[in-house]
């Protein structure tokens, strides 16, 4: 390329988020959003994290002075109950957004990062449907020859809880065999969550999943330090196309 | 939790699969495995990630062994203890003031123990999982905690004055812990005390006053169950987290108090018996025994939730592997939940147990049947993504900066860093810095002005706001002022959004609250949104950013008519090598049948600061090739 086109550049997180949201839109999902300044209720309690429960330690939380009971959301799952309060099932939503964890930062950990949540509620939505949806998503995102596997996991707002791993195909010349990589968390929506949102768990059931965008951006783009995503440094951003 | 492979093996007659095979089985059917380390002596340490749903029974070798038993369809060999030998009448009493905090207290007084080193096997097992050996009594209580998941405590009975009481701490009371820390107590905490003062912060840490030492002759054993959420609060307040508090926090079955007690007493009787050794009568304060939990699990729910049809035989054989007692009803099962499984309370919990043991890999993926749902994505997302495209088209780069800093209206509680104490209240404050730092790289980036935008949330005293910030900084001489460029792009945005942004542009940075923009912009259909976000590329391979300075050089050359820009470019690229990171044409003109091309060259290394000399050599190489072509370097 001799002449460079005069164009702007979209942030790597935008590129990955759009890919994920696009794949899910093609599967019939609607995009929903939610607040970053959130109530304990929607971020934790309504999601079946009791007060003073060790499950809360799984997500170090930013609490704010002057806003008692409010926090910076630790997960885009905060939109689950919010959305269901305003919409009757059946429903199929994808929720991209920024989340926060009060943790020390290093090359692979940031205090802020992006998640995309998926939520499907219907009359007989099953784990088999979850499997189909995530298989389709992972193959679209990482290639048709990628393998996936479900194994048990724990998140208070799903039951059963699932961890999803993926494995890239072995390359003939590579000495090191490819390993399973944890790619997302998922599960069947806990009846308490439906109930907390005013949805009757005797009639409705569903699945939810959450995927970390920054990690996928790092994997896909070969970025070695997650902090480069938030440095405002165009030496990083300008390596990505605009439109 | 770190577990010893040999320790797990002690629960089985037959040999277990190899440590790595075992780890794989656990990983796909039960718990995530962090690591497997083979250690000298034929043991292996498996680091099992036990999450809060199973911390009440599996922060323990026996719990994990039972899980392995389920997965391998094997029965665990568990010792049965008999305490009838040499029981005497030496009792003690304990007063439990709050039975909601302390649901069970099992204890015993043991006379004439011999405090020595532990037997080798106990020392070894503890060492394998990273626990230091202290003496046989303390080691046995530790061993039992890691074996059964039940924290235990031993007091030197001769240092206890009067009777034991489990009570709320008094304001102003203090305790010196076993590790010599002075801790101030208050009425939100519970202690185990004697007539004089606290002997332990209940469930968290023992005190030094009744410590078991080499001189100890007589001991009191405590095996109690305390309320998890109170222990959690106390542990946070005093800033002491222990293996004990971690287990109590997650809740412990009352049954485990007796299991732990029996094992502790039996091991002490076996390994710490002194002359005239006797065991007193067991004290068991358990005013409200746990009720049995029976969960009704419908087969239809199992099938609809997992999306797989299991036969009666398959379901029942999994129940049998768990050792669940169940009763078949019409289309459902009444499953009696084992006392230690505090996590199994609703039918979905039981279904998960069946699903994971059956194996999720056996569940066939099924597309979601058509549902009566018409996607209507939120306008907020549609407008924001549209704005990103419009700005990118206008030459702006999208940045994301930090939510936290030292400026803002709202403070963070417990900030992770001293310069990140506040949540940003605007985007523009940091934009000045973003513009300036990027202006320094203009040549490297090949830009004549820096154009950036950010869309993000901020938090003010009145709540969160969604903002757009735009900034321009001219780097090269430009007739068009920065504010003019912003005015232009705002006009373009207004046109394309169908909503007039009447923001005043006085400077080179503007900030716009997006709430009204989102509400009043033209509607965007689902199909249009899909098109907007189709501008996404996940195949970019990035190059790392170098932290070394870059060096700028120019080169201009006269070439004969017909020479293309690319002919010149190719020579520069080839001769420049890998240190030449950017080549940009900045001037081209014709005169007397010749064409002059002038290029900016940017050099940078990922390993070092480049010297003038080495750049000169590269420039010399390029010139030499130009001259060989018969061109004239200007």
Description:
Chain B: Keywords: Aminoacyl-tRNA synthetase, ATP-binding, Cytoplasm, Ligase, Magnesium, Metal-binding, Nucleotide-binding, Protein biosynthesis. Chain B: Its EC number is 6.1.1.20. Chain B: Mg(2+) binds at residues 343, 349, 352-353. The complex is a heterodimer of chains A (243) and B (634). In chain A, 26% of the residues lie in helices and 27% in strands. Chain A contains 7 helices and 10 strands. A 7-stranded mixed β-sheet of chain A has the order 1-5-6-10-9-8-7, with helices on both faces. Chain B is of the alpha+beta class and 634 residues long. Chain B folds into 5 domains: 2-72, 2-Layer Sandwich (Phenylalanyl-tRNA Synthetase, Chain B, domain 1); 94-285, 3-Layer(bba) Sandwich (Phenylalanyl-tRNA Synthetase, Chain B, domain 3), CATH 3.50.40.10; 293-357, Phenylalanyl-tRNA Synthetase, Chain B, domain 1, CATH 3.30.56.10; 379-532, BirA Bifunctional Protein, domain 2 (2-Layer Sandwich), CATH 3.30.930; 551-633, 2-Layer Sandwich (Alpha-Beta Plaits). Chain B contains 20 helices and 29 strands. Chain B has a 5-stranded mixed β-sheet. In chain B, a hairpin with a 4-residue loop joins strand 10 and strand 11. In chain B, helix 10 packs across helix 12. Chains A and B meet through helix 1, strand 1, strand 3, strand 5 and strand 6 of A and helix 2, helix 7, helix 10, helix 12 and helix 13 of B.
């Amino acid at each position: 390329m001799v002449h460079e086109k005069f164009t702007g550049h979209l942030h790597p997180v935008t590129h990955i988020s759009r890919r994920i949201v696009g794949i899910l839109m093609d599967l019939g999902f609607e995009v929903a959003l939610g607040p970053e300044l959130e109530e304990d209720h929607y971020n934790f309690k309504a999601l079946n994290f009791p007060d003073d429960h060790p499950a809360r330690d799984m997500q170090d939380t930013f609490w704010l002075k002057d806003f008692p009971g409010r926090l910076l959301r630790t997960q885009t799952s905060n939109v689950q109950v919010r959305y269901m309060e305003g919409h009757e099932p059946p429903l199929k939503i994808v929720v991209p957004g920024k989340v926060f964890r009060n943790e020390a930062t290093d090359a692979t950990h940031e205090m802020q990062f992006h998640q995309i949540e998926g939520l499907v509620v219907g009359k007989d939505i099953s784990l088999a449907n979850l499997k189909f949806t995530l298989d389709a998503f992972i193959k679209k995102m990482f290639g048709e020859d990628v393998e996936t596997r479900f194994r048990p996991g724990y998140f208070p707002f799903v039951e059963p809880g699932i961890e999803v791993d993926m494995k890239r195909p072995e390359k003939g010349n590579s000495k090191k065999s490819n390993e399973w990589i944890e790619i997302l968390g998922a599960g069947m929506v806990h009846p308490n969550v439906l109930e907390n949102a005013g949805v009757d768990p005797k009639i409705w059931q569903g699945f939810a999943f959450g995927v970390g965008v920054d990690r996928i951006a790092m994997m896909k783009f070969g970025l070695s330090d997650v902090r480069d995503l938030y440095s405002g440094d165009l030496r990083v951003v300008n390596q990505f196309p605009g439109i | 939790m770190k577990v010893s492979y040999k320790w797990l093996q002690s629960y089985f007659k037959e040999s277990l699969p190899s440590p790595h095979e075992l780890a794989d089985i656990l990983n796909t059917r039960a718990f995530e495995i962090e690591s497997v380390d083979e250690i000298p002596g034929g043991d292996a340490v498996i680091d099992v990630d036990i999450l809060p749903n199973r911390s009440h029974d599996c922060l323990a070798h026996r719990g994990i062994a039972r899980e392995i038993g389920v997965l391998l369809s094997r029965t665990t060999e568990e010792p049965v203890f008999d305490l009838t030998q040499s029981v005497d009448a030496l009792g003690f009493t304990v007063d439990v003031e709050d039975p909601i905090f302390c649901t069970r207290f099992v204890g015993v007084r043991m006379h004439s123990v011999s405090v020595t080193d532990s037997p080798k096997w106990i020392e070894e097992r503890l060492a394998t999982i990273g626990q230091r050996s202290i003496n046989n009594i303390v080691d046995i209580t530790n061993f039992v905690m890691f074996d059964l998941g039940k924290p235990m405590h031993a007091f030197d009975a001769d240092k206890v004055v009067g009777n034991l009481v489990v009570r709320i701490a008094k304001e102003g009371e203090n305790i010196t812990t076993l590790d010599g820390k002075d801790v101030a107590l208050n009425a939100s905490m519970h202690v185990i005390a004697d007539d004089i003062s606290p002997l332990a912060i209940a469930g968290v840490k023992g005190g030094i006053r009744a410590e078991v030492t080499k001189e100890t002759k007589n001991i009191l054993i405590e095996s109690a169950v305390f309320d998890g959420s109170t222990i959690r609060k106390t542990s946070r307040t005093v800033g002491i987290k222990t293996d004990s508090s971690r287990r109590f926090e997650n809740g412990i079955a009352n049954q485990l108090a007796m299991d732990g007690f029996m094992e502790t007493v039996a091991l002490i009787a076996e390994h710490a018996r002194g002359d005239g050794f006797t065991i007193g009568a067991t004290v068991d304060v358990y005013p409200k025994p746990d009720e049995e939990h029976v969960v009704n699990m419908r087969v239809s729910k199992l099938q609809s939730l997992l999306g797989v049809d299991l036969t009666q035989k398959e379901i029942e054989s999994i129940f049998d592997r768990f050792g669940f007692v169940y009763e078949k009803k019409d289309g459902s099962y009444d499953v009696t939940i084992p006392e230690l499984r505090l996590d199994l309370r609703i039918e979905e919990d039981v279904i998960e147990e069946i699903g994971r043991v059956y194996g999720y890999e056996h569940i066939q993926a099924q597309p979601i049947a058509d549902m009566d749902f018409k996607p209507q994505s939120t306008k907020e997302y549609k407008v924001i993504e549209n704005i990103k495209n419009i700005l990118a088209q206008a030459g702006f780069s999208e940045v994301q900066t930090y939510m936290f800093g030292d400026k803002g209206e709202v403070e963070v509680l417990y900030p992770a860093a001293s310069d990140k104490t506040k949540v940003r209240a605007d985007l523009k404050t940091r934009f000045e810095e973003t513009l300036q730092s990027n202006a320094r790289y203009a040549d490297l980036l090949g830009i004549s002005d820096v154009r950036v935008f950010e869309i993000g949330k901020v938090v003010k005293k009145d709540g969160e706001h969604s903002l757009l910030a735009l900034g321009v900084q001219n780097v090269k001489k430009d007739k068009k002022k920065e504010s003019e460029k912003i005015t232009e792009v705002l006009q373009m945005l207004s046109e394309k959004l169908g909503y007039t942004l009447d923001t005043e542009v006085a400077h080179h940075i503007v900030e716009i609250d997006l709430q009204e923009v989102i509400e009043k912009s033209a509607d965007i259909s689902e199909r249009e949104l899909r098109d907007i976000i189709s501008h996404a590329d996940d195949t970019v391979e990035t190059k790392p950013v170098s932290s070394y300075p870059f060096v700028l050089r120019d080169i201009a050359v006269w070439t004969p008519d017909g020479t293309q820009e690319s002919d010149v470019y190719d020579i520069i690229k080839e001769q420049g090598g890998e240190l030449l990171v950017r080549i940009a044409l900045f001037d081209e003109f014709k005169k007397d049948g010749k064409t002059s091309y002038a290029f900016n060259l940017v050099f940078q290394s990922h390993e070092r600061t480049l010297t003038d000399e080495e750049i000169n050599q590269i420039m010399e190489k390029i010139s030499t090739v130009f001259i060989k072509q018969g061109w004239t370097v200007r």
